[in-house]
Amino acid sequence: MKRDILTLWNLSKAEMDALFASAANWKRLRREGKLAQPLVGKTLGLLFDKPSTRTRLSFEAAMVQLGGTPLFINVKDTQLIRNEPIEDTARVLSRYLDGLAVRTYSQDLLTALAKWADIPVINALTDQFHPCQVLSDIFTIIERKGGYEGVKVAWVGDGNNVAHSWINAAAVLGFDLVCACPKGHHPAPWVIEMAKRACRGSVRVVLDPLEAVKNADVIYTDVWASMGQESEAMRRRAVFAGYQVNEAMAEKAKQDVLVMHCLPAHRGEEITAGVLEGKNSVVWDQAENKMHMHKAILEAFLK
Ligand code: CP
Ligand code: NVA
Fold this sequence. Notes:
single chain; Rossmann fold; four-stranded parallel sheet; globular; binds norvaline; 2 domains; binds phosphoric acid mono(formamide)ester
């Protein structure tokens, strides 16, 4: 039976732990210049309806280095924009491809694609979730901290797609997550409810960013206006003004706090240039690790 990653609820703790170990192995092999190609003859489609630098390129590079072939499909060049039904598209793509990574707006559209596709469908970002991002980010935390157990993660900013996947991860893996978000921009209540019901780890939402970052091992932030919210950018800059990750805020966390950002970053908005480029920042490792994690995912789901 094919398996999908539509949200992190599709994976168990044991499966995530296996992916972290596999990503570490792929990273080591690349450092040692060793070639392993378990995906020779396999083809991954990348059906994207939003821009991407890291996710697209890291999936493509991962696929090539594993011996397979990535095929980039801009939604705007397909018959989807002329209203070909999603169920027809999914069944046709399944006849050509061995897996499909999808970046789109609607999580429901992704779910429908996965329902009709016979091949694994991987969420490469929707308005609601960004599961592969958070898997590679936790791999980065494991590299730096030796594990995620007992780690306190502070999310500062918008309760958005990346925040939602962090909430899922905290519930499945069992670490402590505090989200500091302004009123009106909290994570979706049903996402928090589901996490609380799972009873592993703790998830809290607060208004005060300083309360969240106090004694944090990780401070994570993301853009204030996500893709598709461009028209709200100006209004959001005012709402989020007190949520900038800056030097004064970072000082309240542990001395060896990891500052994380999925990128792209807007220096001077959600994070200062000094903190983004500072000694606690691990953003470039995060970007690199997306490729190692995508290798782990592709090997596990496409082989
Ligand atoms: N972090 C991330 O998903 O970046 P891209 O939008 O460039 O893929
Ligand atoms: N929340 C951001 C993440 C970008 C990787 C967005 O959806 O645009």
